[in-house]
Every structure is written in structure tokens, then in C-alpha cells.
Amino acid sequence: MMRRRIRKLSTQMFLAHLAILTASTAIGFLLFTATARGHLDDEYQARAASIAQTFAQDDSVQSCLDSRDEECDAHVQELAMVTAAETGSAFVVVIDANSVRVSHPNPALIGKPVSEPLVATDGQVHLRVDNGVTGTTANAIAPLYSAEHVFIGEVSVGIREDSVSSALLAQLPSYGVWFIVMLLLGGMASFGLSALLKKRTFGLELDEIARLLQEREATLHGIREGVIAIDPTGRISVNNDEAQRLLHLADNVVGHRVEDVLPPGPVRDALTGTSVVTDQVVLTDDYWLVVNRMPVTLSGHPHGVVVTLQDRTIVEALTVELDGERSLTESMRAQQHEFSNRIHGIAGLLELGRPEEALEYVHEIQGTAADLDQTLRTRIAAPQLIGLMLGKAAEANERGIQLTIDPATSVGAVPDRVQALTTILGNLIDNAFDAVSAHPAPRRVLISIVETADGLQILVNDNGPGIAETAVPQLFRNGFTTKRGSLVRHSGLGLSLVERTVLNLGGTISVKEAPGATFMIVLPRSAAPSPTPGVTS
């Protein structure tokens, strides 16, 4: 139980802070003690200097040192002992100008010379800590002058260090109390800080935080969806590897604003909003993305948004391919339906005994189909485009739409852009069919594909209701559609896909609002020009 309690984050922080405070307080107390000891040394040296100077100014001392007789020497010794006793000094030593002791606490040393040279000959008072025969003392040496101001010796006064230590010990308890009070205050502050940090970490311990971080990193970078978290200031706070791949982000985008790392476009718009977005399809140059955006709120305050990006490129490519196959199936079904109707007509004529009229009808049918097939084969060299046109022609015939191929149509094999042209024409023709389906007859759709020396021009025109002027700016935005009811089949992605394909080929696309709707696409010539088929007779 004790081991687990100590593992708590708040307890660890409190103990760590308390140890630091205790060590800091102890070091501070020692430093303060050393400083106080130095101040006391200075104070006691100054006290010794005052005693030495006062003693040196005594007239009897000056006259005795100046005359130097035995009675005077005894008087100086007696006066020195009395002064030392009254002032609490360890000694008062008088030394004459010849370095001979005149007074000393040890009478045996009186009359004996000192080993050190006199230091007060410069007329200054000298302070020091002296380790002499009487022990360690705070020492002061003052010059001694005669009445005529002639240097006649020096006075040395010492105060034992045990007196300094005693004075220091007498002061330390009061200082120690203050240090203990500061330690207690610091401990209380540390305890409060530990409790606050525990609250800020939602009560999680260190190992739990580390484990959550590991799990978060593993989850964030292991999922197959792009994840971007954006704080309330619009800066990226979290992103994973998949988001970097899908949006071509650099490795160091965390902390940068979205506007600084992404170019203008639908992706940036999806990331910079604050509202809820659910399954919005966004097209980039390389990917079909499904975007979900969810605002985050913590404790009732906005905390930014989390955006997820799902790569639907392969799925959507299969969907487009499936739509193409479905369109082909519809075209084949329309052809089969038309073929069945014609067979029924021929069979009816034969049952009525009118073989000549049946034969004439067969020739008429053969001529019409042959004319369209011959026209397409003559003017279009790409088999894929021919197949697309034949299928759309059959579908138009079934839906009661008059599909016209412009006589000026002329296009080569274009092997490097057949898929792109199929995507462009398929979507534009489907949109045209849907536009005229709800329009009263006659319903007409005109297609023109002209290859020139400069490039390729594609025109798709219908006589439907046209496009409202207010809808033109949003026409190529993914998800936007003017269709209603059963006509909504592609979630508004058709024209967006067309525009992206055209721009990838370096072309331009324009639209006229009315009458009807006319889409004009101009594609520059590819690096390898396609041969234009000649008109056969």
C-alpha cells in the first residue's frame, strides 16, 4: 500500500519539492551562518581595534614606552592585564620599536623579541584573524606614538574566536526559526501546487499518462483515416501520417495555421470551418476524400475541431467505372429494346402478308443505323469514343431525345487522353439528357468534338431549361447539383470531376446560361499529336 501511495503523481511531486526545499533551506542556512560568522569576525576585529587604539593613546603608556624603565614596564604590563580583563580580550600586547614585548599575558615572554616584523610602522590599524600562542583570535594592531608623534611601538589586541562562536550560536536559533517557517510555507505551497497539477492532469498518474500517450500515438498513426485537430486559433495541434499523405503536408505543420500550409480550395474550407460536417466529398488533384468535421467542447468552452479524412479514391474510381458500365448496360438495353420493337414491326408486316413493306422497313432501319455508325467511324478514330456515342445514341432514342453529332466533328485516336475524354463526354452528355428529360418536346442535344492544330474543342449543348445565373459560380463545386428527385444520381460530383479532369489536362471550361445550357471545353494539344481521320467517300 505504501509503495502504491508513493507512486501517486501528487505525492511524488510533493516529496520531490519538499526534498528540494529542505536541501535549499539547509544550504541557505549554512551560507547565512558563514556570512554571519564573517560579519561577527569583522565586528570583533573592529572592537579589538578600538581597544588597541584607546590603549595606545594612554599618556602613561606613551611616556613609559618613550622612557623605557623597569617601573614603567611593570606599569604597562599591569595596565594591559587590567584592560584585557575589563574588555574580555584574550590579550593586550605592547611591543616597542625594537620588536621587544613590553607586556604579554605570559610574563615569561616579556622582554623577548617577536619573530614577525612590526606591521604598524605605516601608521595604519591592521585587522586579521591570528593563530598565536593564545589560540585563534580576532586581532587588531594599532601604532603607538610618543607625545612628539614619534613611532615608539605598537599595541596588539586579540579577542578569542570562541567568543565569536558563542555570539553566533546565540543568534542562530532565532534565524533557524525563520528558516523553518519558510520551509513550512514552501512545503504548503508545494502541496497546493501538487494538488493543482493533479487536478489539471485529471487525476492520472505518471505511468497512466505515459501509457495513454503511447496508446494515443499508436492509435493516431495506426488508423487508416487522416486525423487533424485544430485549436480555436486555427492552428494545427495534431495530425497523423495518413493526413500528411492525403494532404501532402510537411512533417512540421503542428503549430502552423491551416491557411499557411494548405492552398485555397475545398479542402482548406473544410478544415477552417467550425460547424459540423458529415461525409462531405472533396476532390483534390490526387484523391477523393470524405471529410467529417466535429467541433470539440471541454467544460463548456470551445476547444477547436477534429477533422477526419477518408480516402475514397479507389472506391470512387470503381464507382465511376461502375457508372460507365451501367451507362453501357443502359445503352445496350436501349438498343435491345429498340431492336425488339423493330423485330416486332417486321414480324407484324410478315404476318399481314406484306413482305415488300417488311423488306423496305428493313432497308430503312439498316440505312439509319449504318449512317450513324459510318458517320462516327468516319469522324472519330478512337473506338472507345465511337462506342460511347453509339450507346448514348441508343439511350437518347429510348428517352425521346434527338442526339445530333455536329458535322464538323473530327477527332483522332488520342490514345493518351481517351479515358479523360470518356469521363468528360460521359458526364456532360448524361447531364444534358437529365436536363432535357423534364423539358417538353422537342428535346435536343448537340455534340461537337473538333480537333485542330492547336488542340481539341468539345461542345455539348441542350435545349433544356438552362442554368440560372446565380448557380453558375457554384456549378463546378463538388456536391452542388440543380437536379431534383430521381435525377440526382451522382451527388453533384459529375461537373466537379469534369472540371478537375480538364484542368489536369491544362484546358479550360466555360458555360453559357441560356438558351438551354452550353458547355465549351478547350484542351491543348498533347505532346504526341493524334492523326485526324480523313473523310471517306
Automatic annotation (TrEMBL):
It comes from the Bacteria. Pfam families: HATPase_c (PF02518), PAS (PF00989), sCache_3_2 (PF17203), SPOB_a (PF14689). It is found in: Cell membrane. It catalyses: ATP + protein L-histidine = ADP + protein N-phospho-L-histidine. GO terms for molecular function: ATP binding; phosphorelay sensor kinase activity. Its main location: membrane. The keyword Cytoplasm does not apply. Its EC number is 2.7.13.3. GO terms for cellular component: plasma membrane. GO terms for biological process: regulation of DNA-templated transcription. It is a multi-pass membrane protein. It is an enzyme of class 2 (transferase). The keyword Acetylation does not apply. InterPro entries: HATPase_C_sf, HATPase_dom, His_kinase_dom, PAS, PAS-like_dom_sf, PAS_fold, sCache_3, Sensor-like_sf. This is histidine kinase.
